[in-house]
Amino acid sequence: MDIENKESENSLEGYRGLARELLDKSKVKIGQRVIVDADDEFRVEGLLIPRYEHADEEHIVLKLKSGYNIGIDVKKIGSLSRTGKGHPVKEDNIPESPKIRVFTRSAAKVLLMSTGGTIASRIDYRTGAVHPALSAEDLRSAIPELESIASIEPEVVFSTYSENISPSHWQSLSERIVSRSKERFSGFVIMIGTDTLAYVSAALSFSMIGLSQPVICVGSQRSSDRPSSDSALNLKAAVLVAARFARSGVYVAMHANENDDDIAIHFGTRVRKNHTSRRDAFRSIDSDYAALVRGQEIVINDQQNGDASLKPSDDFKLKTKFERSVSLIKFHPGFDSRVLDFLLREGKVKGIIIEGTGLGHVSHNIISSINGLISEGVFVGMTSQCIWGHVDLNVYDTGRDLIRAGVVPLGNLFGETAFAKLSWVLGNFQPEKWPAIMQESIIGEQTARLFVK
Amino acid sequence: MDIENKESENSLEGYRGLARELLDKSKVKIGQRVIVDADDEFRVEGLLIPRYEHADEEHIVLKLKSGYNIGIDVKKIGSLSRTGKGHPVKEDNIPESPKIRVFTRSAAKVLLMSTGGTIASRIDYRTGAVHPALSAEDLRSAIPELESIASIEPEVVFSTYSENISPSHWQSLSERIVSRSKERFSGFVIMIGTDTLAYVSAALSFSMIGLSQPVICVGSQRSSDRPSSDSALNLKAAVLVAARFARSGVYVAMHANENDDDIAIHFGTRVRKNHTSRRDAFRSIDSDYAALVRGQEIVINDQQNGDASLKPSDDFKLKTKFERSVSLIKFHPGFDSRVLDFLLREGKVKGIIIEGTGLGHVSHNIISSINGLISEGVFVGMTSQCIWGHVDLNVYDTGRDLIRAGVVPLGNLFGETAFAKLSWVLGNFQPEKWPAIMQESIIGEQTARLFVK
User: Fold this and answer.
1) Which A-chain residues 257-316 have CB contacts (< 8 A) with chain B?
2) CATH topology of domain B2-96
3) Which residues in chain A have their CB less than 8 angstroms from residue B274's CB?
4) CATH code for B100-300?
């Protein structure tokens, strides 16, 4: 309540300096429709939207009816007024980049699947909060130049923040892609929230083994109607890769750095969200990305560590089930071993990934609970909370005790990928195969020990 | 069992190429005492020790009685034989670096506290495993040049792998430092395993507020009798900083990169073990390190983000208790909310740190369990599993729901530091003060939002 009141009172949120002076003088507020007259250069009408926290002081931002946001240099503005008071103008009289409105239809056909998240969100101008609201169709019309890259078919699969996406969503999404893969799409783009994007890309990397088209997961860190939004660039890159990439597999398309030039195409099993807010929050771990998108070009990264030549056996192809009774546990000092007993007894858990310390360790006093889990048939796999590097249970006594208890060391799978793989392995294969499949690098999800970036 | 057999059969482990040929020809095995005769240059006697996995093929490594390891170029070796067969020589006839044996006693006095871990470990030559074995006294004699930096007083506080170190150890270690701080030490060095070193450095950062001397936590990634060991350099840097640093506070001294030149002195609350095996595994998060040690020099980092000018109130000084009933939970897709109910009902937990997704989120279906915890007086703090960046519960609906439930957002404390701070806050302060103290940046444990390295 407090928050809402605070936000709605602050009706020129984010505007400072020159821009603020102009807005104050012109008596317009955020959310109002305005006309900007820049002498002989252009006139444009749109909705005044808030500026991002660290925005510069020299531009105001209007949302056009087309969905575009444009930033206008206040020094170029001759007059600014609410609509009705000024000259009537044609909306969407975009002053720059007319070429982006070219609707050249490409031969490539891409299925643009929406699941929710910031990339498909609108900001609420009253409260400042972001809600999942846009459909794939809305976004397609908001970024019309997508059509110059490929013919786009939009589909809303579900609409939720990605923190609510669970293994059962992974399964329905996988089944939906398989069912639509019979149509002649060059590739699939999945718009998804960034919170659990890396879990989803890892999960799909396994369930989509055998799919001949690439699947590109894409999100954005800033919603599409903020001036600093990364959604249009990320989405264009994702569509480009889905349309033209000659390789199959599951990838993540997100900003490679804080600039608006390069979009990294990460391997779905080797990527992690490593920052809460930066546009380049996603990073490849113990690996390099598969490619970079720069403008209309896909630059394949020859230094990358993924093995595109791997040919997974037919046993792994298009297995779309995911087990729900799996758990990811981060060990910590003083960890209460009864949590493990509870997961066995009440949680009916079938598999657990432990993020141990260092090379893959836990304190000696929880090893008996781990023994208990394994003796009841629960799979226990070890990763490291270090995130980078391989576990090794042969160096220290603690690791040897864990090996004796039947814990399976998982190389350099980090927690998120190990967890997604476990859910897939337990959903599709018999228990006697679990340890071998979990340790195998089926699609390059394990990378070489000596990879150093 | 399998492992031990495998290892003991492999009696020239790690030796390949030229070095292996010489050893085969000379019929010596790892663990045997040998004499090396390098024509007119030197003779030396020592124990043949295994080589590190990726070692070169041109050196053999001997452990001398002094504790030194030396690598000897096989091309320089005239003869190699087991002791008893060759010429008797004086042990420790070290062919290089005689200057490191200068015993200049310094005015500064440093307490060298040992708790176990790789830095105080020996390799078992039979099995290849590493055991905590060396005492602080052993290490002091193994690295005699420490005495040229400061007068060293060794003390074994306990001896365990750091994965076994719990909040009760943090408390006993804190109490021990306070009790010895009345003596005239320039500073304290704590040798500790790297697995939970960052948890311990964070914990001590709080319990040692008000201590006038610096406390330097130091570990090593490779045990002191491996040729690639980082223990001597890390330890020398730690002692140097403990002897000479003009600032108080708790720091971590570890390799700044893979070379043997710079040792980073990280802030105790801003450091994390980010790699399972690299020597530069420790990294400062959303911060820069406080200083670099290069040779005998301490280079203060003016770009660093810590605020040495902070003056914590007397209320925070030398509070050495740590609450044991605290938990660190990493949220994951499909997280079973009953784990939270269990921690409340059976675990009698008093505080929980959640590593949420992105800006600090969890799925909507566990919010009622969080409500349940908070209504019973349990402190619930939110961090992000992204590790880098600030949480922000005001951007999305999920965050607002968590704020309403009473969850406390913890800025850019990452999980490990948040957990250690929580244990300290709950151990020393009344419940009504918990939220404010957890959100305050008492000693610079929170860093600025705009810090970008």
Assistant:
1) 258, 273-278, 281
2) SH3 type barrels. (2.30.30)
3) 386-388
4) 3.40.50.1170
Distance CA A384, CA A398 (A): 14
Please identify among residues 65-124 of chain A the ones whose CB lies closer than 8 Å to any CB of chain B. Answer: none
Mutant choice from B121, B123, B161, B195 vs A, greatest count of A C-beta within 10 A:
B195
Residue linked to tokens 């500064």: B108
CA distance B246 to chain A (A): 31
- How crowded is the C-beta side of B284, counted as CA atoms within 13 Å? 30
Options 3.40.630.30, 3.40.50.1170, 1.20.810.10, 3.20.20.70; CATH for A104-300 is: 3.40.50.1170
* A72: confidence class by pLDDT, cuts 50, 70, 90: confident
User: So what's the ipTM on this one?
Assistant: 0.78
Q: Which phi and psi angles does A291 have, rounded to 5°?
A: -165, 165
Q: Is the dihedral of CA B157, B159, B162, B163 positive or negative?
A: negative
- pLDDT tens for B171-206 read 999 999 999 999 999 999 999 999 999 999 999 999
Q: Is the pLDDT of residue B309 over 90?
A: no
Domain ranges of chain B: 2-96, 100-300, 323-439
Span A339-379, pLDDT tens digits: 999 999 998 999 999 999 999 999 999 999 999 999 999 99
Average pLDDT over residues B126-140: 64
Average pLDDT, chain A: 84
CATH code, B323-439: 3.40.50.40
Instruction: Find chain A residues with C-beta within 8 A of B364's C-beta.
Output: 164
Q: Which amino acid is at A366?
A: I
- B269-280 pLDDT per residue, tens: 999 999 999 999
Asked if domains B2-96 and B100-300 share a fold, the reply is: no
Which residue would you say has higher pLDDT here, A348 or A83?
A: A348
For chain B, give the secondary structure using H, E and C: CHHHHHHHHCCCCCCCHHHHHHHHHHCCCCCCEEEEECCCCCEEEEEECCCCCCCCCCEEEEECCCCCEEEEEHHHCCEEEECCCCCCCCCCCCCCCHHHHCCCCCCCEEEEEECCCHHHEEECCCCCCEEECCCHHHHHHHCCCHHHHCEEEEEECCCCCHHHCCHHHHHHHHHHHHHHCCCCCCEEEEECCCCCHHHHHHHHHHHCCCCCCEEEEECCCCCCCCCCCCHHHHHHHHHHHHHHCCCCEEEEEEECCCCCCEEEEEECCCEEECECCCCCCEEECCCCCCEEEECCEEEECCCCCCCCCCCCCHHHCCCCCCCCCEEEEECCCCCCCHHHHHHHHCCCCCEEEEEEECCCECCHHHHHHHHHHHHCCCEEEEEECCCECCCCCCCEHHHHHHHHHCCEECCCCCHHHHHHHHHHHHHHCCHHHHHHHHHCCCCCCCCCCCCCC
pTM for this model (two decimals)? 0.78
**Average pLDDT for B226-243:** 88
